[in-house]
Write a structure and sequence with these properties.
Elements (H helix, E strand, L loop, with lengths): L1 E4 L9 H10 L4 E7 L11 H7 L6 E7 L7 H7 L3 E5 L6 H10 L3 E6 L17 E5 L15 H14 L4 E5 L6 H8 L3 E4 L1 H4 L3 H13 L1
Parallel strand pairs: 1-8, 2-3, 3-4, 4-5, 5-6, 6-7, 7-8
The structure holds D-xylitol-5-phosphate and zinc ion.
D-xylitol-5-phosphate binds next to strand 2, strand 8 and helix 7.
């Protein structure tokens, strides 16, 4: 199981230091939550922050765009240094165009589904994506409770991947801790995002707890 700490729960006044801490813990990617106050009822930051962090980290930057009409910002995040760009199925009538733009910029493309969206809604997009993110909370805030009902979607995606020979990673995001990560791994998730669990203590210790939980 790959681990992707979310900087949503990091210290925004010391972002560089917190990113360095998780990088030293040898995590697999850095999850960057972008919120616009429209698609979700919260605001975070834009491509400038991604560009500011870029020279300080070698990690894969996984930008989760929780913004309306993300196709208007794909280019800006790609140019800012994102390696992987995630767009929410529910955020635009032009979801295929948004994914296509990410690929044309030479970046890894991710489709994200909210708790209310079934896997069947994105079946025609699965062949083209590098990662599928199954939200395990309603997007917008860190520190919410994990929704175990979403694990059926993880298992369904794992089955489709095997049957069709697709290559996408299956990511889970929201309420992941050293208990819920076990269920995610069992269901077939390959990447776990964790925000509050990683940053509520020493990130190195917390990341190790997540790793241990999946090998137990
Ligand atoms: C929520 C974000 C998550 C958030 C997860 O909308 O997409 O990435 O940081 O936070 P935790 O791990 O605290 O649930
Ligand atoms: Zn996220």
């Amino acid at each position: 199981m790959k681990i992707a700490p979310s900087i949503l729960s990091a210290d925004f006044a010391n972002l560089q230091t917190d990113v360095e801490k998780v990088e030293q813990a040898q995590v697999d990617m850095l999850h960057i939550d972008v919120m616009d106050g429209h698609f979700v009822p919260n605001l975070t930051f834009g491509p400038n922050v991604v560009a500011a962090l870029r020279p300080h980290s070698q990690l894969v930057f996984d930008c989760h765009l929780m913004i309306e009409n993300p196709e208007n910002y794909v280019e800006a995040f790609a140019d800012a240094g994102a390696d992987l760009i995630g767009v929410q199925y529910e955020s635009t009538p032009n979801i295929h165009r948004a994914l296509d733009m990410i690929k044309k910029k030479g970046k890894l493309a991710e489709i994200v589904i909210n708790p209310g969206t079934p896997v069947s809604a994105i079946s025609s997009l699965l062949a083209m994506v590098d990662q599928v993110l199954v939200m395990t909370v309603d997007p917008g805030f860190g520190g919410q409770k994990f929704m175990p009902e979403m694990l059926d979607k993880v298992a369904e995606l794992a089955q489709i991947k095997q049957e069709k020979g697709y290559h996408y990673e299956i990511q889970v995001d929201g309420g992941v801790n050293d208990q819920t990560i076990k269920q995610c791994a069992q269901a077939g998730a390959t990447v776990a995002v964790a925000g509050s669990f990683v940053f509520k203590g020493d990130p190195a210790v917390q990341v190790e707890k997540l790793r241990q939980a999946t090998v137990e």
